[in-house]
# Entry
Amino acid sequence: MSTFSIPTIINSKLPTEKRMDNLENQVLELINRLSYITAHFDSKNVKRLDTNETVIKSADGETYINGPLLQMWDKQDPAVLRLQMGYDPVSGNFLFDLYNKAGVTTVELDSEGNERLKGTLYVQNAVIGIGDAGSLNYDIGTGSYITLKGAYTVTGSTLVFCRTLELGGALYSLERIDFNAGWTYFYGSVWVQGNLDMDGGNVLDVGSCSAVTDHEVRCVNYATV
# Structure
């Protein structure tokens, strides 16, 4: 039944009773053909859907297709949108969004490469940026970010802790960095530009560069003491 055709239901040369019998048989045949098509509505029989809206329902929910937009709804009552992907006429981008059972967005991804996750992200290996163009930013809710940025300066590879007002923007100094650890190890030289305080007391004044231990202390723009 790969070809669908409507049977001829009227033959004027036959007696009326015979024509009625033929009409009944042909209507039954038509019903059988339509039943077959609806029961075998798959990619083997349907190669193209030329329609604005298509809804596919099952016991687990329904899928809605409208041109380049696809939505999937779950079986809750009322149903909750759980996945939406395709073209967004407002932004002009193609989107991929996931929602939890309460309808709250948990994953947002658009064709510009922007992604927003709500939850825990597990990554074995991650590369941020290309060269020194990328950065890792923590939104601290004050209209600014704490930024970790890799760079290559005249002294070599450098990891910069700073503050930015916008992603990829100018770098500003942080007010403070807290290391909540019993011990902090620095393998190499430590350069201090400013005052070095311990337990609230000034231990090293860069202006005088006074040594407090037998180890060598270097100060920016000052000689070794």
Summary: Confidence is low (pLDDT under 50) at residues 218-225. DSSP finds one helix and twelve strands in the chain. Residues 1-46 form one domain.
